[in-house]
């Protein structure tokens, strides 16, 4: 039985009229097939730590960032700035600053428990991919907005919004046949200084983007099964 739902639209304010939503209609069979295909496709995404210097067309990067910009955000405030770096000198500066923080983290800040959790990834403080990858994208979270008159505007749910948007970004990178790493060289404030970002922007994650090196390996990780990540009340 098909149930038609009528939406009561009385809450839509006349000064902000809504527009028709164009739903892409597919059959339930197509829906099932597409859900499986997308699962298989996304399941092949891996974090990559060895990059080739093979160039990437800038238009692809622009489309990837455009995709990140389609994410939902709290009150549609779109609290993100994506800074793209391909300038070798800037990449070098970022690598030097990141490795300085990472060296201190690995040698002083990280607890044994933390180091143990990272052991299987085979990482250390060295981050050559920050110079090898043709592009770095640094996602900045706008902690608050700035109005035209210079006053501050509260932004809502910025961390949740950023996480979703960066998820779109990573999916778009994967969909373009490229690879990336979600990198968080902590603390990351050096990125705000090097990239001259304003006070209201906080670095969220740093993502090198490009092609994997020809001999790339990845950790042999298992992902949790559905019954370990989903609870269904029916
Ligand atoms: C918020 C976040 C921060 C991460 N930071 C780092 C990092 O600084 N360095 C790194 O090598 N990997 C980092 N990773 C990547 C994870 O180690 C990786 O996603 C995880 O091991 C699973 O591997 P997969 O992405 O190949 O499925 C980070 C991932 C997330 C989500």
Counting helices, strands and paired strands, the structural category is alpha+beta
Average pLDDT taken over every residue: 96
Largest sheet: 4 strands, antiparallel
Total number of distinct structural domains? 1
Distance between the first and last residues' Cα: 20 Å
Largest beta sheet: strand ordering: 1-2-6-5
Bound molecules: flavin mononucleotide
What's the total number of strands?
6
Low-confidence stretches: none
Task: Determine the number of helices (DSSP H or I, runs of at least 4 residues).
Answer: 8
Topology as H/E string?
Answer: HHEHHHEEEHEHEH
Named CATH topology: NADH Oxidase
What is the CA-based Rg, rounded? Answer: 21 Å
Question: What characteristic shape results from the CA principal axes?
Answer: globular
Amount of beta strand: 5-15%
Walk me through this protein's architecture.
This protein has 234 residues and is of the alpha+beta class. Helix content is 38%, strand content 14%. It contains eight helices and six strands; from the N terminus they run ααβαααβββαβαβα. The strands form two sheets. The chain has a four-stranded antiparallel beta sheet. Strands 3-4 form a two-stranded antiparallel ribbon. The longest helix is centred in the middle third of the chain and has 22 residues, at 88-109. Flavin mononucleotide is lined by residues 46-47, 49, 121, 123, 181-184, 218, 221.
